[in-house]
Amino acid sequence: MRILGISAYYHDSAAALVVDGDIVAAAQEERFSRKKHDARFPKSAIAYCLKQAGIRLPEVDQIVFYDKPLVKFERLLETYLAYAPKGLGSFIAAMPVWLKEKLYLKTLLKKELATLGDCKRAQLPQLLFTEHHQAHAASAFFPSPFERAAVLCLDGVGEWATTSVWLGEGHQLTPQWEIDFPHSLGLLYSAFTYYTGFKVNSGEYKLMGLAPYGEPKYVDHILNHLLDLKEDGTFRLNMDYFNYTTGLTMTTPKFHQLFGSPPRESEGKLTQREMDLACSIQHVTEEVVLRLARTVKKELDTDYLCLAGGVALNCVANGRILRETGFRDIWVQPAAGDAGGAVGAALAIWHQYNGKPRFPQDGDAMRGSYLGPSFGEVEIRDYLQSVNAPYQHLEDDKLMPHLAEILEQEHVVGWFSGRMEFGPRALGGRSIIGDPRSPKMQSVMNLKIKYRESFRPFAPSVLAEQVSNYFEIDRSSPYMLLVAPIKDELRISMTQQQEELFGIDKLNVKRSHIPAVTHVDYSARIQTVHQQTNPRYYELLRHFQAKTGCAVLVNTSFNVRGEPIVCTPEDAYRCFMRTEMDYLVLENFILVKSDQPQIHKDESWKTEFELD
C-alpha cells in the first residue's frame, strides 16, 4: 500500500511517500523551488517522491494532509470573537485567503493534485486528513526504535493544541492531554525571536545560538509577568503582553515597556541586551520542557520519550532532557517541524487508520534522514561539462585520502554525496566541511562562506563509536539534535582576563582543541556518523582521523544565508562559485576553486540575504 503525506500552506511544505509502512522518500518543497521555507503546495516534492518510487499518482492508494483546516478555522473565529473588537485589521487580512482557499482545502488539494498530469480529479486516490499534533506525534513515535514510549509535541500551534502528550504502544498512539492556544511555548519563544530582531519561524536558531553569550537577567521578568508556570510544567501566558492573537506582530507595547525598548530593528546592531534576552528565554524554555518531561515520565511510567514539533529542534533543551529527567533514552524526529508532518500523517494513516502492525527497528526507521534525491555520475558530468567547469574524477580509494589532506590544510570543502537530507540539518549529504582544530574555521565559514552572523555556532560530525572520546555523551546522536559538553581533557583553561570577557568578545577565545565546534559554554551540537546510514561520509571521517588523529569534522549546511540547502549539482556549483569555498566534491568529482573559469560575480544577491 502506498500512502502520500503532504504538509503545506503554513510554512515548510513537504511531501513524503510511505510504501507498506516504509518511508521511501521525503523532501521539502523549498529545496526544489529555492524559496526558503516555501509554504506552497509541494508539487515538486510530490513529483520527486513518486519518481523515487517509480510510480505515478494514480498508483498511490491514499493521500493524507497533516492538518484539519475546518478545526483551525474554528479556532481563528473563536479567537477573533474572544478578543473583539481588537484584531479587526488582522481578521480582515486573514479572511480572504481562508474564504478563497483554505476553507475549501479539500477542493484546492484535488485541484493541485490534478495538475500533476496523471489523472483527473475523479480518479484521484482517497484523500484523508489527520490532526496537526497527531501528525507530529506519529512522526515522533512510529519511526522511533521504541516499542512503548511517551510522546511530547511542542510547537507554535496546530488546530488548537500547542502542547500535547501521547502514549505510543505498538502501532497505536493514545492522546493523554494538551495545552491549547493561545498558551504556547513555541509562540513565547517566537515572541522573543521577533523582539530581538530575527524572523519568526526561521530566526529561532539564531536566538538559541546567541543565548550562551548572555546572562539570564530577565528570567524573573518572564516568570513574574509573562508566564504562569506550574510545578508540573503546564503554563499560561499573560496575553496582555502578546499581540499574535489579534495583530500582525508578536508583542505589544506593554511587552516593550517591560523590557525597556521597542523591538530591535532587523539587522540592527546586536547588543548585550539581546544576548541577555536570548539567554533568559532559553533558560525559561529549558525549565518548562524539563518540568513537562518529568511529569510525563511520572504519569505514563515509561523509560523512553519521543519528541516532535518545532520546539523539539531546541537541541540544548533536548540534551538536558536526556541528562536530567530520568528517561533511559529519547528520540527526536529529525524533521521535527511542519515538514515532518508529511511523514507523520502518512504513518498515522498506515498504522492507525489502516490498523497495520509496527515493527520497531534498531536505530530508527528514518534511514538516517537521507530521504531526498541523489544524482548519478552521468548527470553530474553532463552538468559540469555544460558550464565548462574543470574537474577531476577520483575513485574513493584516492579521493578520501586526498580530501583528508585538503581538510588538514584548513581548506573549506563543499560536500555533495548520496541522497539529500530531510529536515533542517545537513548530515553529510549536502554539507560544508572543515577542520575542527582550526581556530579560524568558525569565523571563515560564517563570514566568507555562509555570509551570516559571526556568533553562529557550527556542529561536529564525529565517528559514532568515538563520540565519547570527545563529548560527554554515551549514545548516538545521528540527527544533530542533542547538545553535550566537550570532554574536560579537550578543554583549554582560560586566563583570568579571558574569564572576565562578556558578550560577543567571548567568541575569540580558543576553548578547546577542537575550537571550531566548541561553543562559548564548552558545549557542542553533535552529529554521530554511522557506517550503516552514510558509508561515504563515515569513510571520509575515518581517513581524516588516520591523517590527523582527529575523528571529528566541522559540518554546516551547504547553503548561504537566505537560501535553502542545495539539492542538485547545479545548486551546489552555483553556491560554490558565489562563496570563498576552496573545493567542491560532487560524488567522485572534485573541483578546485582556483581552476574554475573567472565569471562575473553579481554581488547584489549577497546584500539581499544580509537584509533577510
Mean pLDDT: 91
Outline type: globular
Tell me the number of helical segments per DSSP (H or I, 4 or more residues long): 20
| Strand order, largest beta sheet | 13-21-20-14-15-19-16-18-17
Structural class, by secondary structure, is alpha/beta
Reported by name, the CATH topology of the largest domain is DHBP synthase
- The CATH top-level class label of the largest domain: Alpha Beta
| Ends apart, CA distance between termini | 43 Å
Under CATH, the homologous superfamily of the largest domain reads Carbamoyltransferase, C-terminal domain
**Count of discrete domains:** 3
From the alpha carbons, calculate the radius of gyration and give it in angstroms. Answer: 24 Å
Beta content = 15-25%
Number of strands: 21
**Unreliable stretches, pLDDT < 50, 5 or more residues?**
600-612
Give a written overview of the molecule:
The protein folds into 3 domains: 2-135 and 341-367, Nucleotidyltransferase, domain 5; 179-331, Nucleotidyltransferase, domain 5 (2-Layer Sandwich), CATH 3.30.420.40; 377-610, DHBP synthase. It contains 20 helices and 21 strands. The chain starts with a strand and ends with a helix. Helix 15 (396-408) crosses helix 18 (535-548). The chain has 612 residues and is α/β, with parallel strands linked by helices. The longest helix has 29 residues, at 272-300. Residues 404-593 form the Carbamoyltransferase C-terminal domain. InterPro entries: ATPase_NBD, Carbam_trans_C, Carbam_trans_C_sf, Carbtransf_dom, NodU/CmcH_Carbamoyltrnsfr. Pfam families: Carbam_trans_C (PF16861), Carbam_trans_N (PF02543). Residues 2-347 form the Carbamoyltransferase domain.
